[in-house]
UniProtKB/TrEMBL annotation:
The keyword Transport does not apply. GO terms for biological process: DNA repair; DNA replication. This is DNA ligase. Keywords: DNA damage, DNA repair, DNA replication, Ligase, Magnesium, Manganese, Metal-binding, NAD, Zinc. NAD(+) binds at D69, A70, E71, Y72, D73, S118, L119, E147, R170, E205, K321, K345. The gene is ligA. Residues 1-44 are annotated as: Disordered.
Length: 713
């Protein structure tokens, strides 16, 4: 940082607007337009930028303000004046770029370099101790880092050659939205790193401080606008503003907690990651703690539950992580979350309400779900007027009656649920609820299968089932038809333009134009999205079909194994049960689905419409079909999620532990007990270079003898 100019180093100088000011040692005798002045002007601009960014770092990152608000505003004002006069000198990392003003038409999609996974939740000390037991079965000497769980919006920031390149939302974990212009307005986020790092990806939480939230809501109330329910909603809405000038006014903060890319190899622990991020200029939440045992973690969770309301920002829990990065790699991931981390959620806020009625909703599989209609009440930051009651057994166990006073909370601070009935407040006018004997949507018969808690409508023509089935069919993980939401699905069914999801592929432009609020451009976009969905392939299609018990992961497993819908249709229950992850219940459900006459009619319509019913491997057997492969240790060529996704795409099962059924172990650096187990069991082992060459050989259909082969090749 440059030294502050002394009195002796000052002399009168003209500002960009022509007025005079004291010149600093950085620009003595400079006048815009004077011979050689441009260099001096550039030096002055650079000096101002350094002063402002240093002030930002001291204020937001170190909590040590070095300038008054007036001094800061004066420096920023002068910088803006210079840059307005000489726009060619504006750079992407200038503090002026935080002011905002970029207006986007829409957000572009961004694929994350590694997925942003969700965390499993713990709600009490018992859950934490169970997490500790699982961790110590793999890493007996593990210690934990506990960080506050900031209640905001997860953001991924990418740097290239030390400069902020892109900011993106979490999205679905795989793909987010480009909000670069908005994240640049966050003063605690460095626009340029102090080290020239080729590539760095930083994850963290964008949040709105309580003071900013209260000020924003007060301003909106004065202007007659609706107010935000809580700081999290306000932060999410601010970061997803199309006009970044609005975001800049909201005064958001950012806490960094993870990094990928260069620099990761310099540290060995999560606490080291936090220290390195802070050294790079990021704000790191100062409340993190390190514990050698789970009981220290339990005590700290209790302490923060009491202190949470004293913080300047909202938190909804804490995140517990194994400190050692090597132990994190050994613990690995499930399909949805890391095994080395868990989120402790604070006990939910409970409030009282009244059950005014109980209504029944019919889902896509025909399940009848009772829902409580409640006297509206504020709980955990939003107004609640409905809560699912799940099923008849749930209502019976809690003895919930229409007219009851009940205690409500949000499960995980998200989903409203009835905790208990306040039976002492009953007047005798309350009414017991009985599940209907006929479907409330179509009047068809309702049945309850043996061993199940759910009542179901058995009519395949039930309009409620059809609506929910179409909504599921076009959802993101299924056929992913952009622009086709629940309201439009309902309109298409009500007008008779479609009777089921297969009819979507026969829709005509002129038909769509007859719908309410449907313009020509919207109709064109919808037809393009429907046409594009035909090429999604077998795995998303199997999930879209809504087969009972078959989720997105099972759809991928089935697609990898059978490669075509025709082969799957002909599979026996015994053949299905031989597949890893496909148990007898799912296998029976799959067979039942394909024996229904309505299923055959539906699939015929899909085929006639040209919907792709094969996997990407076509009629060929996947390269690694039938293999079970375990990856262990740290890799250079791939990240863990990337190589496991590749393994599954090629038809193999990416397993987390070594057994006699393991075909191959891919071992990176610092491979531990899994490598030892593989050697003891005589299982083939490859490093990542050997594995890469072997894959290339398989792709070229080389003979097995030309490369090391796993068992069962």
């Amino acid at each position: 940082m440059d030294e502050e100019p002394t009195k002796e180093g000052r002399k009168k100088e003209r500002k960009p607007d022509g007025s005079s000011e004291q010149a600093t040692a950085g620009n003595r005798g400079t006048k815009p337009g004077q011979d050689g002045g441009r260099k001096r002007e550039g030096e002055r601009i650079s000096f101002l930028r350094r002063q402002i960014e240093e002030a930002n770092r001291n204020y937001y990152g170190l909590d040590r303000p070095t300038l008054t608000d007036a001094e800061y505003d004066s420096l920023m004002g002068e910088l803006l004046e210079w840059e307005r006069k000489y726009p060619e000198l504006v750079t992407p990392d200038s503090p002026s770029q935080r002011v905002g003003g970029h207006v986007a038409k829409e957000f572009n999609k961004v694929r994350h370099v590694e997925p942003l996974l969700s965390l499993d939740n713990a709600f009490d000390a018992g859950d934490l101790r169970e997490f500790d037991r699982r961790v110590r079965s793999v890493a007996p000497d593990a210690e934990y880092v506990v960080e506050l769980k900031i209640d905001g919006l997860t953001v991924a920031i990418s740097y290239e050659n030390g400069l902020l390149l892109r900011g993106a939302t979490r999205g679905d974990g795989e793909v987010g939205e480009d909000i670069t212009a908005n994240v640049k307005t966050i003063s605690s986020l460095p626009l340029r790193l102090p080290e020239k790092i080729l590539r760095l990806d930083v994850r963290g939480e964008g949040y709105m401080p309580k003071a900013s939230f209260l000020r924003l809501n007060q301003e909106r109330e004065e202007e007659g606008q609706t107010t935000f329910a809580n700081p999290r909603n306000a932060a999410a809405g601010s970061l997803r503003q199309l006009n970044s000038a609005v975001t800049a006014q909201r005064k958001l903060g950012f806490f960094a907690y993870q990094m990928l890319g260069e620099g990761v190899g310099q540290v060995e622990t999560q606490s080291g990651v936090l220290a390195y991020l802070q050294r790079l200029g990021f704000s790191v939440n100062p409340e993190f703690r390190i514990f050698r045992d789970i009981e220290g973690v339990v005590r700290y969770c209790g302490e923060m539950a009491e202190r949470r309301h004293q913080l300047a920002y909202d938190i909804d829990g804490l995140v517990i992580k194994v400190n050692s990065l090597d132990q994190q790699r050994n613990l690995g991931f499930t399909s949805k979350s890391p095994r080395w981390a868990i989120a402790f959620k604070f006990p939910a806020e409970q409030v009282e309400s009244v059950v005014e009625d109980i209504v029944v909703r019919v889902g896509r599989t025909g399940v009848l779900t009772p829902t409580a209609c409640l006297t509206p009440v504020a709980v955990a930051g939003s107004t609640v007027s409905k809560a699912t009651l799940h099923n008849a057994d749930y209502i019976g166990e809690k003895d919930i009656r229409i007219g009851d006073h009940v205690l409500l909370q949000k499960a995980g601070d998200v989903i409203p649920e009835v905790v208990t009935v306040l039976a002492e407040k009953r007047s005798g006018a309350e009414r017991e609820f009985v599940m209907p004997g006929t479907c409330p949507a179509c009047g068809g018969p309702v049945s309850r299968e043996e061993g199940e808690v759910a009542y179901r409508c058995t009519s395949i023509r039930c309009p409620a089932r059809q609506r929910e089935a179409v909504i599921h069919f076009v959802s993101r993980d299924a056929m992913n038809v952009d622009g086709l939401g629940p309201a439009l699905v309902a309109q298409l069914l009500e007008t008779g333009l479609i009777k089921d999801a297969a009819d979507l592929f026969t829709l005509k432009f002129e038909q769509l134009l007859e719908l309410e609020r449907m313009g020509r451009k919207s109709a064109e976009n919808l037809l393009q999205a429907i046409e594009k969905s035909k090429e999604r392939g077998l795995a998303p299609l199997l999930f879209a079909l809504g087969i009972h018990h078959v989720g997105a992961k099972a759809g991928r497993v089935l697609a990898q194994t059978f490669t075509s819908l025709e082969r799957l249709e002909g599979a026996t229950q015994e053949e299905l049960q031989e597949i890893p992850d496909i148990g007898p219940v799912m296998a029976r459900s799959i067979r039942q689905f394909f024996t229904l006459e309505s299923t055959g009619e539906f699939l015929t319509k899909l085929r006639l419409a040209g919907v792709k019913t094969t996997s990407d491997t076509g009629s060929r057997q996947p390269l690694l079909a039938g293999q079970t492969i375990v990856v262990t240790g740290s890799l250079k060529r791939w990240d863990r999620r990337g190589i496991e996704a590749l393994i599954e795409e090629m038809g193999a099962r990416a397993a987390g532990s070594v057994s006699k059924k393991t075909s191959l172990v891919v071992a990176g650096e610092k491979a531990g007990s899994k490598l030892e187990q593989a050697r003891a069991l005589g299982i083939p082992v490859m490093d990542e270079d050997e594995f890469s060459r072997w894959l290339a050989g398989r792709a070229k259909e080389t003979a097995p003898s030309e490369a090391a082969q796993p068992a069962g090749s």
